[in-house]
Amino acid sequence: MKKYFLIIFLIIFLKDVTGIGIVTNYLENNTLQIMKGTSTIYEIEIQNTEEEMKVKLVLQSDIAKVIDYQEEYTLPKGVSNTPIYFNITTPNNARVGDEYTINYYVQPLSAKGGNIQFAIALNKNFKVKIIEDPNKPIPKVHFYQFIIAFFLLVLFIVLYKNYKNIFK
Amino acid sequence: MILRIKKRNIIILLLVLLIVPIVFASQVIQYFTVLVSMTNHEPTIFYVNVTNVTLVAGSIATIDILFNVSDSDGFGDLNDSTAGVNVTFNGVSRGNSSCNPTDYNTNYTQYACKVSFYYYDNASTSWVVNTTVADNSGNTSRNDTNNLQVKSLSSMSIVTNLTFTSIAVGQQDATPTTNFMLNNTGNFDFTGINMTAYDLTGVSDSTKILGAGNFTINTTNAVAGSGIQLQNGTSLNITGATLPHKTSASDISSNKTIYFWLDVPTTLTVQNYNSTTTWAITVN
């Protein structure tokens, strides 16, 4: 009796199983700068170069949300770029210089293959940095603030000179 | 003998020394007229229209760059064959020396130039657009005041199939008939590759399971069977696996071969085995 039996074992990963890509604007140091107290729209495009395909998008961030989120996105056949927009809002307690990381990934829902279904997932991230509004006006000191400060100074001097008499 | 010089004489002498050169100098000034006869006007590139470049994975993306030229001698004086555009960044150049002219009025022509970018061209907002055209007298006009952006493209594909055939039950370190190769088809450098595998189930007898843990992978092929042992439903980083983008047409660093080995348990039966869940390669 044979110790081993021959098995017909066929596993195929098909060529170019997924043709998806993610297109984004170039970010210096992979960092998006947002002015404190504001929000902005960030665009990604999912690129398909093959047959029609369904993909899912997962966004992991406390400060960003997908606008008009869909459980699955259908990418048209051929070379196509499907735009998706993130609404990024700076937190109320954010300070200038704070940085946040936004993670997201895109994965095909319809995979191809032989015995093993195979898919490629693209995992991406970028940073958001809070910056000061360069056009923010320098706060003005009003005249009445000068007056108040002057009288407080006078009051302080008077109290200082006469504290022994006052607290006798 | 004592020389006595009067103060008055000294003053007179100084005045003479001062006045004489001025008087004579005024006599040697010559006036002449320069007459330049302008018979030709140089062309002027006064407007350049550029768009951002969205690359196409593993392929070529072509954009139109338009620029408008005026020439006081009329558009007929422009030498259309000299119109061209060159877009450069970090020593890489993409251009076209054959542009299509459209004459709008007697002194104004617009050139449309198609420029192609490869999928691996660097992402940047600093690609410099240099347009040029000359007239029939050889006077050349250039404009390099515009930049364009090549966007970031993260994309990957599987180049070759992975096939195991005719593997004996109990066989150790079985290798596929072809190696499994990934290809970076964009301009983004992937710094990590993860693999998520799932158990295979027998097609005829679903009680037989070929566990994901029977697969081992690495990127070095140094020792048969060495590397990472896959785990059912677990994303595992492939040690040392990166996938940089191509830097030139001849660069092959954007390809990464992943070597597979399979140990077939003796408890399995002869049949096909399928995965009921999609395996995943995640790049980041």
Features:
heterodimer, A: 168 residues, mainly beta, Immunoglobulin-like, six-stranded mixed sheet, four-stranded antiparallel sheet, disordered N terminus, B: 284 residues, 8% helix
Number of domains of chain B: 2
Measured on Cα atoms, how large is the radius of gyration of chain A? Answer: 30 Å
Overall pLDDT level of chain A: 84
Shape field of chain B: elongated
How many DSSP H or I helices of chain B?
1
Shape of chain A: rod-shaped
**Pair of chains with the largest interface and how many residues each contributes:** A-B, 45 and 56 residues
How many β strands of chain A by DSSP? 12
- The radius of gyration computed from the alpha-carbon positions of chain B, rounded to a whole number of angstroms, is 38 Å
Structural class label of chain A? mainly beta
Distance between the termini of chain A: 115 Å
User: In angstroms, what separates the terminal alpha carbons of chain B?
Assistant: 106 Å
Which structural class do you get from the secondary structure elements of chain B?
mainly beta
CATH class of one domain in chain A: Mainly Beta
Strand content of chain A: 35-45%
Question: What would you say this structure looks like, in words?
Answer:
The complex is a heterodimer of chains A (168) and B (284). In chain A, 14% of the residues lie in helices and 45% in strands. Chain A is mainly beta and 168 residues long. Chain A has a domain at 21-131: Immunoglobulin-like (Sandwich). In chain A, the strands form 2 sheets. In chain A, strands 4, 6, 8, 10, 11 and 12 form a 6-stranded mixed beta sheet that branches. In chain A, 23% of the residues are buried. In chain B, the strands form 5 sheets. Chain B has a 5-stranded antiparallel beta sheet, with no helix packed on it. A 4-stranded antiparallel beta sheet of chain B has the order 1-2-6-5, with no helix packed on it. In chain B, 32% of the residues are buried. The mean pLDDT of chain B is 87. At the A-B interface, strand 1, strand 2, strand 3 and strand 12 of A face strand 9, strand 10, strand 11, strand 20 and strand 21 of B.
